[in-house]
Amino acid sequence: MTNTQFPVYSISISGLLSWQLHALNNEGNEGNQSLTRRYYIIQKGMNEPESVNGVSGDMLKHIQAEHLHRIAIESGLSLSEGGKQFNPDRIKYDIDEKRFEIIKSKSKDGKEEVDLTANVDTILKLCTISDLEGFMFADKRTIKRESVIEFGAVVGLPNFVKTQSYFHAKYGVDNPTPYNVQVSSGLYATVLNIEAFRIGYNPHNFNYSIDIAERKKRLDALLKSVLYTYLQPNGAKRNTNLPHPDHFEGVITVSTRRCPAPMVSALEASYTRQIHSLADTLNNLNGADTILCFDFENLAQFAAQIETLIQRVQPWESENAEAIE
Is residue 323 assigned to a domain? Predict the structure, then answer.
């Protein structure tokens, strides 16, 4: 495909990160020892599970949401009052502050009930962050939306990540407080998926609640927030253990038809080759250019590929219903 615009159904990123001397995700403390997050993984050829350092998908999602919040404000995108304040409850905050009233309707038997279609429609129009990051609250009936963007844990490659404990002392007026900090360096596998077709989509009436121009703005903001997430990975201990991001390589895949954008974890050494092979197979099955691949070999190329996507991708349009959440 030439440098033309194309509709986007889903986007996936499979990458290999190198973070040096970071302490982005600690699980707490035991005495004067900070505890870094660990994951067990087991791969083909291993005799037993191996414990590796990692950063949770929750942490990455929160980092991305923070960046999206700033971008949405800067770009003048629609936000609820809770969204403007980056309140974790967002719409529930507006409800509690009497800024949003639950919409109700009469059922066939004359009883008043929560109108899911109308509420979700109004919320999607009102709040960009709630649309993209999801929400859930209850008012006699649960009203929810799954996140458009999904993160996997950032997981250290076995034998390519090392965690060390370093002694520190917090000096005060009286007695210094000794403590140990866990700092990690290594290569990490990262994956994420964006269900781009769901931006602004109300699954209760099978229609889009916002127009195509607004959906394009939200898609661009989402892609920009993903870029910022890897450029500035916020987290624990950054005041004195700011990570050294020295490498990022991988593949961004985009599907232009109803087909998952393929991803393969960098835990598998041949992940890039497998992704391109999957793309070829899916293109053979569904038609040319169903899957487009955008490779990058460093952070600068990753940023350039995100810029290319922002310039070329268009919101998904279809009169056919998507599956309800």
Answer: no
